[in-house]
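During the no-cost extension, the postdoctoral fellow (Dr. R.K.) reprocessed legacy sequence entries with the updated structure-token encoder. One reprocessed record is reproduced below for audit purposes.
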Amino acid sequence: MVIAWPVEAADETVHGAVVFMRTGDRIPDLHKEGTSQTLSALGAQQIYQMGQNFRGRYINGLGSIGLGQSQISTLSQDVLDNNQVFVMTRQEPYLIASAQAFMQGFYPPTNVSTGKVLANGTAIDLPFEGYQYPEIRVAGQYDPYSIYMAGSQQCPEAQRHSLEYYETQHSQDAFKSSMPLYNSLDPKWFQGVTNQSLINYYQAYEVYDYLYYQHTHNTTVFEQFNNDSVYRDIYTQLAQLANQEQYYRWGNTSASSHSSNLQSMPGKTLAALVLGQLQRIVAKQYDGTRNSNQEAYPVSFLFGDHEPFVSLFSLFGLDDVNEKFAAIPPYASSMIFELFSADSTTFPDDPANLFVRFQFQNGTDYKGDPQSYPIFGRSPNHADMPWPDFGQFMSSTMVNSMSEWCGACSSPALFCWGVDENSTVVMVDGRESKKWKVSPVVAGAIGAVVTLAVAALLFALAILVGGVRFHRERRRKNSELGGFKGSAKLASDMDLSVPKSPAGTAEGMVGLGRDMERKKPKSRVESWELRQKEGIGGSGGAGALDRGRDFGESRGGSLDEIESSMRPVVPTETV
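Re-encoded structure tokens follow.
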């Protein structure tokens, strides 16, 4: 069989790709209490289809059904190699499910033997008729990598800049003019979901997101929108208002009143990850000896929500070229960044002969090669950017380090505290990558806290289980120093210090544990050893000692004393 490849496929070699994909259809943000936000069956089919399409494009041209053909020769044909595919998502059930559904299409079950043989000679293959298990990196809120997938989360400044739109005259005019439209919506649609008073332009995305789901899955709502003359045009108007509201919140960088454009943080952080993944491919090829330990994946698939799309479209200047880039992309839409050379060889001798193209796949309805678009104000006939130019423009657009993100955001994120910024570096030229390390001050503090916690636990067990009681001799001279330092702060006390630019890099970051909690410093309290016997009496109460009696005075022959020793120790407060 002769395969008719497109002309450009014969003249180009794709060396790697980074794809950011929106989730498939899922339970909307507005949903009844007790309902989890999960991927719908329709959404799973949408994402699965995109997995098949990308498989046809990058792996097996014979199976292409929607995205054309640009094979990456280094990818395994049938058996998934997790060292070749980078898959990452946030810790949301519908996003994790999207990644799983996509990979089922990208590397479907295979009957190819894995060749695994046990020590006793038994051949073993994958279960479920060759189902393949992809590694999916899930970035939780305590993982520094989470900022790549949702740069505005845990970023108060980005949220503040985004919400400033509601204070503009444009927003207030849109609110007033759209109220008749929102008031005309059937209240029964929102019963048990939200208050009718909250259905307005300031919730334009949430309202449309909810009604989109109902329009897709609820027959009654579908028929009302399509057959009732009152609602026939309203659905389209709701979509337009949602697009407008989200664009002005997360995009609109060319008209923003802030030069920092922090409202576009979702796009800034995603740009850093895209560039970093492509840099690793280039670094491995041209500096393989120094970077032999670098993980360079031929393809990277990232799954998230619509905000990074809106932000990055605006940062690229695409919203000034085509109005569809000032809108929310459909479910299962993709931004594609392909690294290629303009001939059929492997890699050119000079990385300056590499190019990057930006493509957009508008959901699952469009068939054929993804459309290329010029970014950063380039002309339409210069959509393919030389690699050095792409790196330069992306570096000026993105957040260059974790410390920069933490500082710009004034973020309370755990990974922004107590990290030695001198041990981190951004991978801007593809040649550097270091892991974090905790600063000596913080490491010492952590060790001290752990030691004290263990000691306190053992101490409490001794009190509760062993009936340990504290006393001192009646006529013993008081100590001048006491046992602990009490509430006084000595020069030797070292408080935890937080650097002004806490944290590190947008590349080479390692995840922190998801179960960690941020601890607040606790104030010192007076040690029991500093209490003087003349102030112990107190005012009585349950468990209090008799007035005038020395603390811990021996009454070994008393039954009361034996009984009291069996009760837990009760603190006595003094003045």
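The longest strand covers residues 13-22. Residues 183 and 197 are 9 Å apart (CA to CA). The remaining legacy entries will be reprocessed before the final report is submitted.
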